[in-house]
């Protein structure tokens, strides 16, 4: 399947079935196993295909656990059973990076807490130089402002673990996660631009569409440049997923989505700040995304260190 065909299929499904469960989304489209190697039931594709799906998820504000399952867990683990379950869409998985927890691994027992984790069934934790699978002692879901990105707090009370992959590969998994999130952000920013442009054509003041006024034209033109630059940054990273490209995409796309979401509200005017309109949902998603794997300044800091 070509990238345009993949995009069309995912966009059509998300538009027609916005409330479909993960098993149906992953099972009917087969997208959960895009990056899973073929010997384990996957398609064996790379970051380009994953980025297409992430863009469409960002556009539609889908809550599906694609980022943590199909991108992070599929890249992190070498467990054949887990990889097959991911590819089949029968299990979701999340990865807890070293900076996201205060856990201690003693032998085959894990203790500690991970306060903000992308929600999923199977939990993989980088701890003690290893990647281990552990069943949390407790899960406490958060009631967040951004309901499209479920987060949970995990605690581990001397729970038994088992080896799940290479513990030294966590930076690579983090970079892939940042790139995938950047693609989501680029998709969300593009959707905000589309909504703002459409409204500027429909809303009339003084007998003219507001899009005919110079101030609105300039705002939309500036936003178009921001959105296209975000897409370029995300796709450059997807084409060549290096640490530097991930840091650039993570920094720029976070700020671009925040700006696009804010401009969308402003151009909509009064209706844009109401709960009845979807503009606030993009603003919430943009705000939470900008902190998910570190704020933009942390990505720029990684470039300076490099």
Features:
306 residues, alpha+beta, Butyryl-Coa Dehydrogenase, subunit A, domain 1, Butyryl-CoA Dehydrogenase, subunit A, domain 3, 3 domains, two-stranded antiparallel sheet, 9 strands
Range of helix content: 40-55%
CATH architecture of the largest domain: Up-down Bundle
Into which percentage range does the β-strand content fall? 15-25%
CATH C-level category of the largest domain: Mainly Alpha
Low-pLDDT windows of residues: none
User: What is the name of the CATH superfamily of the largest domain?
Assistant: Butyryl-CoA Dehydrogenase, subunit A, domain 3
Number of strands: 9
Content-based structural category: alpha+beta
Q: Report the principal-axis shape.
A: globular
* SSE pattern: HHHHHEEEEEEEHEEHHHH
What gap, in angstroms, lies between the N and C termini?
37 Å
Q: What radius of gyration results from the CA coordinates?
A: 20 Å
State the major sheet: 7 strands, mixed
Cofactor: FAD
GO molecular function: oxidoreductase activity
Pfam family, one: Acyl-CoA_dh_N
Organism: Nonomuraea mangrovi
Task: Please describe what this structure looks like.
The protein is built from ten helices and nine strands. The chain has 306 residues and is an alpha+beta fold. It has three domains: 1-91, Orthogonal Bundle (Butyryl-Coa Dehydrogenase, subunit A, domain 1), CATH 1.10.540.10; 93-165, no CATH class; 170-305, Butyryl-CoA Dehydrogenase, subunit A, domain 3. The strands form two sheets. Strands 1, 2, 3, 4, 5, 6 and 7 form a seven-stranded mixed beta sheet that branches. A two-stranded antiparallel sheet has the order 8-9. α3 (47-60) crosses α6 (170-202) and α7 (214-239) runs antiparallel to α8 (243-268). The longest helix has 33 residues, at 170-202. The mean pLDDT is 96. Its EC number is 1.-.-.-. Residues 22-65 form the Acyl-CoA dehydrogenase/oxidase N-terminal domain. Pfam families: Acyl-CoA_dh_1, Acyl-CoA_dh_N.
């Amino acid at each position: 399947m070509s990238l345009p065909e993949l995009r069309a299929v995912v966009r059509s499904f998300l538009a027609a079935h916005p409330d479909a469960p993960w098993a149906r989304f992953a099972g009917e489209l087969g997208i959960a196993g895009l990056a899973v190697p073929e010997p384990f039931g996957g398609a064996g594709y790379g970051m380009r295909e994953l980025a297409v799906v992430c863009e469409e998820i960002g556009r539609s504000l889908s809550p599906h656990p694609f980022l943590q399952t199909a991108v992070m867990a599929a890249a992190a683990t070498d467990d054949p059973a887990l990889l097959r379950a991911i590819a089949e869409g029968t299990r979701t998985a999340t990865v807890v990076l070293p900076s996201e927890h205060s856990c201690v691994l003693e032998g085959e027992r894990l203790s500690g807490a991970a306060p903000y984790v992308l929600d999923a069934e199977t939990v993989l934790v980088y701890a003690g130089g290893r990647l281990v699978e552990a069943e949390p002692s407790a899960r406490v879901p958060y009631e967040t402002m951004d309901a499209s990105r479920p987060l949970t707090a995990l605690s581990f009370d001397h729970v038994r673990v088992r080896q799940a992959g290479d513990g030294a590969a966590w930076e690579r998994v983090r970079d892939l996660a940042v790139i995938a999130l950047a693609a989501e952000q680029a998709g969300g920013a593009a959707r905000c631009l589309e909504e703002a442009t459409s409204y500027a054509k429909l809303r009339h003041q003084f007998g003219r569409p507001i899009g005919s006024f110079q101030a609105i034209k300039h705002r939309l033109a500036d936003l178009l440049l921001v959105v296209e630059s975000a897409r370029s940054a995300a796709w450059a990273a997807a084409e060549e997923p290096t640490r530097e490209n991930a840091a650039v995409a993570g920094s720029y796309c976070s700020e671009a989505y925040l700006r696009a979401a804010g401009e969308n509200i402003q151009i909509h005017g009064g209706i844009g700040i109401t709960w009845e309109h979807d503009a606030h949902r993009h603003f919430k998603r943009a705000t939470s995304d900008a902190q998910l794997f570190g704020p933009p300044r942390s990505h720029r800091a990684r470039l300076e260190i490099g």
